[in-house]
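Exercise: predict the structure of this protein bound to FE2/S2 (inorganic) cluster.
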Amino acid sequence: MTNEIPATPDPAWHDVAATGEFTDGAMRGYTVAGREVVVCRTREGQWHALDNICTHGFVKMHEGRLRGVRLICPLHGASFDCRNGKVLGAPATKPLACWQLKIEADRVLVAPPSA
Ligand code: FES
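Solution:
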């Protein structure tokens, strides 16, 4: 005899938005499980999610600009590659942590980086 275990949503994944809320080149910020995340949709239609707090100072990255894959801080202009979080321009020196992101049935789901 086997016990059927009902499927439960993976607690690591959080549904944050509908895909239709984003135009190409748009980004939005969310608070997920007490942590800030920025979701980016590039002009090429690629989706990425990263920590939304600049590693140089306490400012939200989604209030800056997204130029191609370059995510630009609104305060001092540091830039990061939204595909991998790497620093592309000073004054920041530490990368942004990348979140997992998946699209399911026109919904955007994100999961925090593993500690
Ligand atoms: S706070 Fe982002 S570059 Fe200074």
